[in-house]
């Protein structure tokens, strides 16, 4: 295999484009795909302050790296989720990345600052799964911090595999509201900072290749809560399709953005108001994050009380 640009031995194959690149030309290709996503979807301008949501994994660190390499004013935000060793290690990776580049990294400690720990979310009927609670907490905190610290836009490391898997899940269950809002750019209204996904044209494999070629030290282990997640099943199904038909993921996702999504535009959105407790935007009187905290507090109070009753009986 030879590089499409210089005919030197190739380091990375991009089958869906029928191409392969040597290391320097792959990095050029990667940056070009990001530049194109930012421009095509009008994500942000060079003067904008961008907050990158950083988890310590390859996607978010590759995102932050490419934004800095392209000269954007990008800070990072890491949320310590309270998931044991995984959280400790991923925070170290994020901090080491920021320090090596002299980049600005904010940290929110969810257990210490909000009394919520994603390693201890109670399971059971009628309760949110740990990943649902975690996704909610992350969306809430990234938005709140971006807003409070005056950022113009919040960037996440979702790649083409993530977006295609989410789309497949939304299509399988005909989630009309989610389909209407699935986009690499979301500007949802007052109190909600614009959200963008600059890696949406790049696959997970390409993001990993970029991280390795740039010498980014990221956390390789998956979060222990990820096991059995539906999204992994959808990714596997899409990988099978991609292997048999290179370009399938891109065709599904980019085709949806161009031709499918406009068909869902009429889906109604519930109006937003301010949460009575924290002031963040919500569709209810009290936002889902405040309700999650309240439920967690109740659970904590109830569990020791119950244990005490049982041992005293
Ligand atoms: S961090 Fe959180 Fe993920 Fe872990 S608990 Fe689930 S959502 S899997 S990206
Ligand atoms: Zn080359
Ligand atoms: Zn609230």
Structure description:
This protein has 313 residues and is α/β, with parallel strands linked by helices. Helix content is 49%, strand content 12%. It has eleven helices and ten strands. The strands form three sheets. The chain has a six-stranded mixed sheet, sandwiched between helices. A two-stranded antiparallel sheet has the order 1-2. Helix 2 packs across helix 8, helix 6 crosses helix 9 and helix 6 crosses helix 10. The longest helix has 25 residues. The termini are far apart. The C terminus is likely disordered. It binds Fe4 H S5 and zinc ion (2 copies).
Question: In terms of topology, how is this protein built?
Answer:
Blueprint: E1 12-14, E2 19-21, H1 23-40, E3 49-54, H2 58-69, E4 73-80, H3 84-101, E5 105-109, H4 110-114, H5 130-148, E6 153-155, H6 160-172, H7 176-181, E7 185-186, E8 194-196, H8 204-213, H9 230-244, H10 248-260, E9 273-274, E10 281-282, H11 288-312
The helix count comes to 11
Report strand %: 5-15%
Give the low-pLDDT segments: 307-313
Shape: globular
Cα-based radius of gyration, to the nearest Å: 21 Å
Q: Overall mean pLDDT score?
A: 93
Strand order of the largest sheet: 5-4-3-6-8-7
Q: Major β-sheet, in short?
A: 6 strands, mixed
- Which compounds are bound in this model? Fe4 H S5, zinc ion
Order of helices and strands, N to C? EEHEHEHEHHEHHEEHHHEEH
Return the structural class: alpha/beta
Count of DSSP strands = 10
* Percentage of residues in helical conformation: 40-55%
Distance between the termini: 73 Å
């Amino acid at each position: 295999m030879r590089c499409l640009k210089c005919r030197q031995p190739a380091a990375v194959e991009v089958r869906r484009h029928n191409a392969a690149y040597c290391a320097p030309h792959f990095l050029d290709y990667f940056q070009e795909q990001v530049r194109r996503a930012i421009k095509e979807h009008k994500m942000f301008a060079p003067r904008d302050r961008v907050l990158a949501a950083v988890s310590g994994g390859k996607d978010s660190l590759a995102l932050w790296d490419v934004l800095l390499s392209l000269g954007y004013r990008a800070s990072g935000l890491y949320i310590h989720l309270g998931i044991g060793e995984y959280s400790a290690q991923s925070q170290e990776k994020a901090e080491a990345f920021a320090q090596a580049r002299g980049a600005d990294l904010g940290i929110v400690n969810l257990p210490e600052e909000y009394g919520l720990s994603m390693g201890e979310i109670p399971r059971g009927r009628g309760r949110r799964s740990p990943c649902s609670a975690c996704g909610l907490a992350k969306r809430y905190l990234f938005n709140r911090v971006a807003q409070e610290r005056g950022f113009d836009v919040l960037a996440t490391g979702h790649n083409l595999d993530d977006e295609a898997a989410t789309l497949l899940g939304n299509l399988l269950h005909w989630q009309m509201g989610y389909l209407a809002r699935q986009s690499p750019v979301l500007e949802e209204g007052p109190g909600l900072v614009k959200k963008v996904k600059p890696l949406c044209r790049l696959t997970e494999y390409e993001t990993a290749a970029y991280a390795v070629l740039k010498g980014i030290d990221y956390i390789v282990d998956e979060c222990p809560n990820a096991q059995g997640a539906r999204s992994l099943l959808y990714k596997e199904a899409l990988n099978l399709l991609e292997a048999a038909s290179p370009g399938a993921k891109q065709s599904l996702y980019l085709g949806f953005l161009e031709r499918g999504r406009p068909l869902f535009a009429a889906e109604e959105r519930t109006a937003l108001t301010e949460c009575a407790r924290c002031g963040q935007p919500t569709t209810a009187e009290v936002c889902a994050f405040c309700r999650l905290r309240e439920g967690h507090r109740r659970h904590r109070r109830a569990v020791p009380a119950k244990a005490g009753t049982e041992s005293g009986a």
